[in-house]
Design brief:
Blueprint (H helix, E strand, L loop, with lengths): L13 E7 L7 H11 L4 E7 L3 H14 L1 E6 L13 E2 L1 H6 L4 E5 L2 E5 L2 H10 L8 E5 L3 H12 L4 E6 L2 H15 L3 E5 L12 E4 L24 E4 L8 H8 L3 E3 L1 H17 L5 H11 L4
Parallel strand pairs: 1-2, 1-3, 4-6, 7-8, 7-10, 8-9, 10-11, 11-12
Antiparallel strand pairs: 3-5, 5-6
Helix pairs in contact: 1-9, 4-5, 4-8, 5-6, 8-9
Length: about 290
């Protein structure tokens, strides 16, 4: 009888991903898949467009039986996801929003490093100590960034939002968490930036591909010495950043923030400390820059 041989069994693929709405233009899946491949990991990253809170509850409940290892959470679900989790870390408790989870022993554990990624990206360009910050928008990502910027040494902060309850709530959160003075300014028409502002951040979805909507700013109120920061990841240079750069401002793009927070998430999920250059190349290729 002829002997039979068996092919070695390939290691099981591990699934990770992101939930949000919309997610189509975000390059995070191609970035993570490229880094998984670089490290020889049989892992995959899936983007999931979740349009309603009811669907969010169904999707989160399905993560355990589907065998996911981790999941990123993006707008608009960073706050709504919290009651669906089994546990949250100290950052989520302080900030009130989660931007990713680990799945360990069937337990969904929420974390937040939105602000930590922003801090690292900004401090590549300017120190945060003593900055007078104006932030446009204060949603799930914005509230995390506001608190982390305050923890990193910002001297004062103004939150500009269309919803007064949201703006006042996050301003109170910043002051409670950090002791840094934080006030709310209503967003009505074109935004006038307060005199003395040294760092202006767009924490809204205005400027995201494919619409590329301009942020309604009175640019004559922006000091050319101010640093402009955008959270948008596609395109790298949004209309907001292009205008800021034309006026002489230093700029910090959302792609750099994405890279910094993704490195931290990758490490927690896999236990591997990756090289930043691998992430930078992967996201550049995903955006058609490489």
């Amino acid at each position: 009888m002829a002997s039979s041989s068996r092919s070695p069994i390939a290691p099981q693929k591990q699934m990770t991903g992101m939930m949000g709405h919309p997610v189509a233009e975000n390059p995070i899946d191609r970035m993570f898949d490229a880094v998984f491949a670089h490290h020889g990991l049989p892992w995959q990253f899936w983007k999931n467009d979740i349009a309603t809170e009811a669907d969010l509850a169904l999707a989160v409940a399905a993560l355990r039986p589907l065998g996911y290892r981790g999941m990123c959470i993006t707008v608009p679900w960073k706050v709504a996801v919290i009651p669906l989790l089994d546990e949250v870390d100290d950052d989520v408790r302080a900030i009130g929003a989660a931007n990713y989870m680990t799945i360990e022993g069937g337990r969904l554990i929420g974390h937040n490093n939105d602000g930590k990624g922003v801090v690292k990206a900004i401090e590549k360009v300017v120190p945060l100590q003593g900055q007078r910050v104006v932030m446009l928008g204060a949603g799930g990502a914005g509230r995390a960034m506001a608190v982390e910027l305050a923890w990193a040494g910002a001297a004062a902060m103004t939150l500009v939002t269309r919803r007064e309850t949201q703006g006042r709530e996050v301003a109170a959160l910043v002051e409670q968490a950090s002791g840094v003075p934080c006030q709310w300014q209503p967003w009505e028409g074109e935004v006038s930036v307060p005199e003395g502002t040294t760092l202006l951040m767009n924490a809204t979805h205005l400027g995201c591909a494919p619409e590329l909507e301009p942020v309604p700013i009175r640019w004559d109120t922006v000091d050319p010495q101010c640093t402009a920061v955008d959270v948008i990841t596609n395109p790298r240079l949004t209309p907001f950043l292009l205008t800021a750069r034309e006026r002489g401002c230093r700029v910090v793009d959302g792609v750099e923030m994405l890279v910094q927070l993704a490195i931290q998430i990758f490490h927690l999920w896999t236990g591997i400390q990756p090289e930043e250059s691998v992430f930078q190349r992967a996201v550049a290729e995903a955006l058609g820059e490489g």
